[in-house]
Amino acid sequence: MRHEDLATCVSCGLCLNDCPTYRVLGDEADSPRGRIQLIRGLIAETAAPSTTTRDHLEACLVCRACETACPSLVPFGRIMEGAREVLREREDRTFAGSVGRAALDTVAHRGRLALFSRMTDLSRRLGLLRIARALGGRLAWAASLAPAREGRSFEGTDRPGADLALFAGCIMRESFGDTERATVRLLERQGDTVTTPEEQTCCGALHAHAGEGQRARELARYNVDAFAGSDAKIVVNAAGCGAHLKAYGELLADDPAWAERAKAFAARVRDVSGNASGRSLGRFCKRSRASRSSRSPTPSAAAAAPASTT
Ligand code: SF4
Ligand code: SF4
Asked: Is the pTM of the predicted complex or chain greater than 0.85?
């Protein structure tokens, strides 16, 4: 937690209407300005925070919508990640906390995540997720987060000397294989060769948001190493991962052995929509539309089709 970050907030309140939790809950303590006040109080003491303070800080989505609204450029995401680390350090170890840490660890282990993703998919097909949602409570909440699997998982190719390097991510790679393959096709159609470094892992954004800062920094070091040996741009198709990868320089700024490498890594990160040329995006969208319309009947053909007798 950097004290100078907290000092940048001048309590003007211009961020309030951009904060989803403030708009829904209508409580100053659930606004960016209110949370910054709570964090100032949190770090001024060494005691465990009250349940009320913890609840207001945990309710933040770390969406960073307040950052773009703030005229003082308050780095709210960084402040909240630091505050969550303080919360984790001061809370008692509970069973629920251990389950949460195990879930985060699963995301960062490819084999475990693949198994979990297949089991979730099977549960969906058997209707078990629907039952879990009907039961309510935390089980229903967890079931509602499970992504529907999109095609088979993505297997990238490690190609030394390629023009671009794909950051495949963790859940994206397991559950959104079709999107990953489409991303590679799009980049190759604009004439670039694409490599997917095998040693890469989860970006660590979920860990940082949950206050597991040490693990988040560990994952950042893995990725900096995995993409070393080339200065090819690192393309990412998940905006949340991209935002976190671009912040690796700040994340490892206090680690003299990694600070420079992390900064250089962050400078190479590009969102796929920013990297693909407008021409190739237009061509790709046109082909996707054409292939979609060749698969589904046109409105006039559908109207002309005989009505179902079942
Ligand atoms: S976070 Fe920014 S916009 Fe919000 S109260 Fe502080 S200075 Fe104003
Ligand atoms: S990060 Fe999002 S939810 Fe949290 S205070 Fe800012 S706008 Fe609100």
From this structure: no
